């Protein structure tokens, strides 16, 4: 008789419950293994993300869910074909969880410079990963430079940063240089900021029941 494998039942939580779990973690900084466990071990209720689903037709938006001195949680909404610049994360640990859509995650190695604005030489890594709903990706100080590219359909990702990121280094591979870019939010607590024009609200559809993650369609 073959072996019967059982899989742990995923816990269904709202996004606010994830924030509460992160806030309850002791210490001055988040513990990476515990953050990964929280993000991988739950199915997020789609309607808990509804206030933060603001899209821009030709790019991506940053929607703040929670921010304090220790960490921040954001929902990023990606139009098809939208891509981030090649960037780092201001020396912070960060986690990306895919809720909807498929994204290409491209990593880069720093060969020379790149620790401050000025000369910077990067090389690409041979692997470009396709991140599906439920996938959790972690960036560290040593492996922090990457680019995120949304593929054929709109995508939604949840991001946790070990401390708020106010600016980052953006890399230009052709010019072999990097520069500082200030990070701008589009909405806070589900409310658009005045300077964020051309935003469109996405209505949440029915959540799809799956064994490993939850998602929704337009």
Topology:
Elements: E1 11-13, H1 15-23, H2 32-40, E2 42-44, H3 46-49, E3 54-55, E4 60-67, E5 72-78, E6 86-87, E7 94-100, E8 103-113, E9 118-131, E10 136-139, E11 146-150, E12 155-161, E13 167-172, E14 177-182, E15 187-188, E16 191-192, E17 200-201
Parallel strand pairs: 1-2, 4-15
Antiparallel strand pairs: 3-17, 4-5, 5-12, 6-13, 7-10, 7-12, 8-9, 8-11, 9-14, 13-14, 15-16
How would you summarize this macromolecular structure in one to three sentences?
By secondary structure, this protein is mainly β. The chain contains three helices and 17 strands.
Description:
This protein is mainly beta and 218 residues long. It has a single domain (11-200), classed as Jelly Rolls, CATH 2.60.120.10. The protein has helices at 15-23, 32-40, 46-49, and strands at residues 11-13, 42-44, 54-55, 60-67, 72-78, 86-87, 94-100, 103-113, 118-131, 136-139, 146-150, 155-161, 167-172, 177-182, 187-188, 191-192, 200-201. Strands 10-7-12-5-4-15-16 form a seven-stranded mixed β-sheet, covered by helices on one side. β15 (187-188) and β16 form a beta hairpin. The longest helix is centred in the N-terminal third of the chain and has 9 residues, at 15-23. The chain is globular.
Rg calc: 18 Å
Name of the CATH superfamily: Jelly Rolls
- Strand arrangement, largest sheet? 10-7-12-5-4-15-16
Shape: globular
- Compressed to H and E, one letter per element, the order equals EHHEHEEEEEEEEEEEEEEE
Contiguous uncertain segments of 5+ residues: 1-8, 205-218
Strand content: 35-45%
**Which CATH architecture would you pick?**
Sandwich
Task: Describe the main β-sheet briefly.
Answer: 7 strands, mixed
Domain count: the total is: 1
Class, according to the CATH hierarchy? Mainly Beta
Distance between the termini: 44 Å
- CATH-derived topology: Jelly Rolls
Average pLDDT reading: 86
Tally of contiguous helical segments: 3
Counting helices, strands and paired strands, the structural category is: mainly beta
Name the helicity range. Answer: 10-25%
Q: In total, how many beta strands?
A: 17
């Amino acid at each position: 008789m073959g072996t019967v494998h059982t899989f742990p039942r995923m816990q269904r939580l709202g996004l606010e419950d994830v924030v509460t779990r992160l806030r309850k973690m002791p210490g001055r900084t988040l513990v990476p293994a515990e953050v990964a466990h929280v993000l991988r071990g739950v199915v997020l209720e789609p309607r808990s993300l509804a206030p933060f689903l603001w899209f821009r037709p030709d790019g991506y938006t940053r929607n703040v869910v929670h921010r304090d001195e220790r960490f921040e949680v954001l929902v990023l909404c990606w139009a098809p074909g939208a891509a981030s610049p090649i960037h780092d994360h201001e020396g912070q640990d960060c986690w990306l969880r895919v809720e909807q859509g498929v994204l290409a995650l491209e990593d880069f190695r720093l060969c020379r410079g790149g620790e401050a604005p000025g000369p910077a030489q990067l090389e690409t890594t041979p692997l470009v990963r396709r991140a599906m709903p439920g996938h959790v990706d972690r960036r560290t100080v040593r492996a922090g430079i990457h680019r995120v590219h949304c593929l054929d359909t709109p995508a939604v990702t949840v991001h946790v940063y070990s401390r708020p990121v106010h600016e980052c280094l953006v890399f230009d591979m052709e010019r072999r240089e990097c520069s500082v870019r200030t990070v701008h939010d589009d909405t806070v607590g589900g409310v658009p900021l005045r300077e964020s024009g051309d935003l469109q609200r996405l209505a949440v559809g029915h959540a799809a029941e799956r064994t490993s993650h939850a998602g929704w369609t337009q």
